[in-house]
Amino acid sequence: MRLPETRDLFARKLEFPVPRETVVETVGSTELTPPDGESTTIQSVIEKSEVEEFASADDLYDTLMTRVGAQFVGRRYYDDRGSMPKQDDKSEVSF
């Protein structure tokens, strides 16, 4: 499952507020598939958190988002704003 789809899963499968143990029992075995890298389960991500109860699907989703690994970030260090070249960089950039 892709990470953005988990919020709907939480809203469908869980009643909030919900304790962490119930999240793990109900949806913990769901695999999360990153754009690059190795997949993981919701349980393994939630266990990195110290939160014992989630007030809403958004709360659970936010916790999940802050605890997933770098493989879910996408292209690391990507800058689509066209950062300025360093002063000592003599190469020209043409658009």
Automatic annotation (TrEMBL):
InterPro entries: DUF5789 (IPR043899)
Superkingdom to which the source organism belongs: Archaea
UniProt-recorded name of the protein: DUF2795 domain-containing protein
Natural source organism: Halorubrum alkaliphilum
